[in-house]
Specification:
By secondary structure, the protein is mainly α. Helices cover 73% and strands 0% of the residues. Helix 3 packs across helix 4 and helix 3 crosses helix 5.
């Protein structure tokens, strides 16, 4: 205990764990793998996004900055043969709330109702055709990758 009567963080975490004790509060806030991992991973994702934006603006590539950042993240992950744990933690957290990210897009579509009424049929046709092409390409890619896969239990 300090001279002013307060308990240091180290002493706090040495107290036996009791419900609603200061030790359980310390464990919750100091334990790595909780909010710290998410924030670290989120900052990492934003760093890749920023790197992608900088790369696109410096090289004049006709590619969106976030896509370039995602490709950088993919390249680094493939070189390391793993995804960093905080980035994985943040990605899972964001993906679990992905539906919330569609709300602004839905509001934007509804605010452009006249444009939607004018070009809606063409937009629907484009969406159906692009979805069909995506499904075919995904299916062919899966078929190719499964054909290249070695049977389970064989040695290289």
């Amino acid at each position: 205990m300090r001279r002013d009567g307060r308990v240091s963080l180290r002493q706090c975490c040495d107290i036996p764990d009791r419900p609603h004790s200061r030790a359980s509060l310390c464990d919750r806030h100091v334990n790595p793998g909780t909010h710290t991992d998410f924030l670290t991973g989120f900052v990492g994702l934003m760093a890749y996004w920023l790197a992608g934006e900088l790369l696109v603006s410096m090289l004049g590539i006709g590619l969106p900055g976030p896509v370039a950042g995602m490709l950088l993240l993919l390249g680094v992950s493939m070189l390391r043969k793993r995804v960093a744990a905080p980035v994985s933690h943040a990605s899972h957290g964001l993906l679990s709330h992905l539906s919330l990210l569609f709300v602004p897009a839905g509001v934007g579509i509804m605010s452009q109702a006249t444009l939607l009424a004018e070009h809606g049929l063409g937009m629907i046709a484009t969406l159906v055709l692009s979805t069909a092409v995506t499904l075919v390409i995904t299916g062919l890619t899966l078929k190719l990758l499964l054909a290249r896969r070695k049977p389970h239990g064989t040695q290289p």
